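Researcher: I'd like a candidate sequence for this fold, 283 residues long. If you have to choose between options at a position, lean toward the conservative one.
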């Protein structure tokens, strides 16, 4: 990540100019330069096409709009990078800081869930929600709003806001952001960002598309041992019921079969899933 406030040194205040106004202008110029430098780094590292200036401006405007309308602590837009294994990140914080850079998608649990579901994810620490989802308290969050930007059935980006001002308005904010992002969807898709979310890949298929998996309700480990499950694996686990084939799971999750095969194999190896239907009477 690029910290737009690090090494920030405002110029001397000119006569007659308010100090706070001068600081704002200096910060704006500095973050613009930093943003261009970060974009050059992204392009050189990944070999992808440079983001057009108009797209960059629209992304910034959308992130700032998300921050101002939700009153959140920060707002971020994530978008996959063609030919790369990371995402572009544009973040605005309530204190005026701005970040721009790259991030591994495996570290963005809630964003991946919003993308996989292709629908908004709204969570509040004061409200009950699916216990299978990452817990906000463990992530240091009070509320979360993630809205996938969808075009022709494909997620081309995710816009999210953290710790919004009014948690009762999460659904309304989700609808507002979804509408605001419509104009940006075409441009992001035209840059090739709708191809795939870069998850784990490679390897020969071990399971057949007609294989049926189910959850193991009693894991072969002690309770205190702890189990780590990636966001992509969660999207597979949500689909397993002892009846759906892996081919069906691939379609429902929006992944290729090769991706589902690799993830399912990892779940089998760790004893989290099993082939065939689990004996529910054991619970």
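Model: Candidate sequence:
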């Amino acid at each position: 990540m690029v910290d737009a406030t690090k090494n920030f040194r405002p110029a001397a205040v000119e006569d007659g100019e308010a100090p706070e106004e001068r600081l704002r202008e200096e910060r704006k110029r500095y973050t613009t330069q930093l943003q261009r430098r970060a974009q050059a780094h992204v392009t050189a590292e990944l070999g992808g096409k440079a983001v057009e200036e108009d797209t960059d401006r629209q992304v910034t405007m959308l992130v700032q709009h998300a921050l101002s309308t939700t009153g959140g602590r920060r707002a971020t837009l994530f978008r996959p990078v063609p030919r790369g294994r990371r995402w572009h990140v544009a973040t605005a914080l309530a204190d005026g800081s701005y970040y721009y850079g790259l991030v591994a998608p495996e570290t963005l649990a809630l964003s991946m869930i919003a993308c996989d579901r292709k629908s908004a994810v709204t969570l509040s620490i004061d409200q009950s929600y699916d216990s299978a989802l990452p817990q906000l308290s463990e992530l240091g969050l009070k509320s979360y709003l993630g809205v996938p930007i969808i075009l022709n059935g494909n997620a081309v980006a995710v816009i999210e806001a953290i710790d919004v001002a009014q948690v009762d308005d999460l659904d309304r904010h989700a609808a507002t952001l979804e509408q605001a992002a419509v104009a940006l969807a075409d441009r992001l898709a035209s840059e090739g960002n709708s191809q795939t979310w870069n998850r784990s890949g490679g390897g020969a298929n071990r399971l057949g598309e007609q294989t049926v998996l189910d959850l193991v309700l009693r894991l072969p480990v002690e309770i205190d041992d702890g189990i780590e499950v990636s966001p992509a694996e969660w999207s597979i686990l949500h689909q397993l019921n002892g009846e759906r084939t892996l081919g069906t799971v691939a379609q429902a999750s929006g992944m290729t079969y090769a991706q589902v095969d690799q993830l399912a194999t990892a779940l089998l190896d760790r004893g989290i899933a099993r082939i065939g239907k689990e004996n529910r009477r054991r619970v």
